[in-house]
Inverse folding.
């Protein structure tokens, strides 16, 4: 593996991100297979139990200190947003073609911008607001409201995207006061605890194949998160965010091979608009940061001139 360590950081980040995109698409496929018979709350309960087992050493290393939070209310709000994201997002994955659910979920980027303005007091210019508007037009094309092709599960995928955006915004706030260990502990335990009662209520005893798939979901989820963390550890966030949409290709491939489902023209058109708008937002944000750096350097140079 010496050759890998010699690669530029951005290439390392891209490699991990490509792996994460495959793994997350595989996780969606496994959940869709399990959801043909098992209830989503049972799937989530067993998924969280598996993930807690895998991260138990990190939790126990500083327990109960890992549960001490400076902002417990925000931690619980983050758990609530994660529940919305997973319950709605995974339900959509079960009932929609994989590519459709994945493409609609990309609206997360636009919700992040809206929430950042509302809760972080960030300033967003005309270009980014225009990109948000265009992006939601793409979402509407995929949802096709008012037609026979409209599905409530498409709306659930959109709500799940809003929940995931809420998680991202709350992570920005929590990372200023709480350790990564505390954030991880609340996230892993919180969802599992909430899922205990509904998971038991809707319980159906899995058969041998379903137990294997459930174990695979937990392992794949954990592995995917690790790949994502390593990707953003090595690579530039703006570059990686623009490449994350390759996940749609894997979702399309898995959906076609396993369920013989291929997205229609409305999905491709809407997804193309959503991805183009999101990539434009990333480009504008990158340019804005570069402009700020250039201004700062200019001011530094002027300050040292006689």
């Amino acid at each position: 593996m010496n050759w890998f360590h010699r690669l530029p950081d951005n290439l390392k980040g891209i490699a991990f991100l490509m792996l994460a995109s495959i793994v997350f698409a595989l996780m969606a496929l496994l959940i869709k297979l399990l959801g043909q018979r098992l209830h989503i709350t049972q799937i989530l309960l067993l998924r969280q139990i598996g993930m807690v087992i895998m991260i138990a050493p990190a939790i126990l290393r500083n327990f109960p200190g890992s549960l001490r939070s400076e902002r417990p209310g925000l931690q619980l709000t983050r758990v609530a947003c994660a529940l919305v994201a997973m319950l709605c997002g995974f339900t959509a994955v079960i009932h929609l073609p994989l590519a459709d659910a994945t493409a609609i979920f990309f609206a997360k980027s636009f919700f992040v911008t809206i929430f950042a303005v509302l809760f972080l007091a960030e300033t967003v210019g005309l270009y980014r607001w225009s990109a948000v508007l265009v992006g939601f037009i793409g979402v509407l094309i995929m949802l096709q409201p008012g037609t026979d092709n409209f599905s409530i599960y498409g709306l659930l995928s959109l709500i799940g995207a809003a929940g995931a955006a809420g998680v991202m915004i709350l992570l920005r706030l929590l990372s200023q006061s709480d350790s990564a260990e505390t954030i991880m502990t609340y996230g892993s335990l919180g969802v599992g605890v909430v899922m205990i009662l509904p998971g038991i209520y809707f319980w159906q005893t899995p058969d041998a194949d379903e137990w294997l798939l459930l174990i695979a979901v937990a392992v794949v989820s954990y592995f995917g998160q690790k790949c994502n963390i390593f990707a953003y550890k090595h690579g530039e966030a703006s570059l990686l965010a623009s490449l994350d949409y390759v996940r749609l290709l894997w979702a399309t491939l898995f959906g076609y091979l396993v369920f013989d489902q291929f997205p229609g023209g409305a999905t491709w058109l809407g997804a193309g608009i959503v991805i183009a708008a999101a990539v434009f937002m990333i480009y504008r944000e990158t340019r804005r940061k570069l402009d700020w750096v250039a201004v700062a350097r200019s001011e530094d140079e002027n300050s040292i001139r006689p």
The two ends are 52 Å apart (CA to CA). Residues 292-306 have pLDDT under 50 and may be disordered.
